[in-house]
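Kindly review both lines to help learners:
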Amino acid sequence: MRRAVCLVNVPHEGPALLGSLLAERGFKVQVVEVFRGERWPTDLNAQDLLVIMGGPMGVLDLGRPEYPWLQPVVQLIQQRLAQDAPCLGVCLGAQLMAHAAGAKVAPMVDSAGQRLREVGWGPMQLHLGADPVLRGLPATLEVLHWHGDACALPAGAVLLASTPVCPVQMYRLQRSFGLQFHPEIDGPTACVWAEEDAAFVQAANGPDGVPVLKAASPAAAERTYATRRKLLEQILDAQLAL
């Protein structure tokens, strides 16, 4: 049985829909809470899938004592990319994978140098035709954004999606995919995140950001479910086929 080893960086960011889809495809899903000091298997091979989930920390936190697992995770990703073994990075995971591949990751800023944050349900443009993994999807997807950092496109990667403030929203690098957004999250979980990460939501969307996001999330998650699921299914199918 193929394994999917999912590295979790905070208690409230597990694989969610992604874990269900992996199980449907016959993967044995192993969740590793690296923030608690749990270790991933040492015998991962090119038939196993490594999944790296999100979290509030970033590439700039590499080396900080409160996040001792980040640098070893980057080294693991580097090893797997060198072997063309599949990885799937979500939000922080996509940034760590880009960094491991030599691309710049930094806070988003506007033309005046002010910090930008992209938080909430919003449109994302797909670069249809860039890769077969996007087949049958609309040119614009509504997805959940939750980040203040962004990455450049790694060398050799194919750009799959963008937003105006974050040009690299999704990319493919050989057998691996980086997703800056969160297609795996449902409405109730988005509401939990809004409470858990209230200061970040308010910094992005103002003092009413939390109640507005909580009010919007159930309906947004429901109306986007089919396209989010289709995208994740096609990514996983592409990784299985190689």
Q: What stands out?
A: The chain has a mean pLDDT of 96. The chain has six helices and eleven strands. Helices lie at 17-24, 70-82, 92-100, 187-196, 198-205, 209-241.
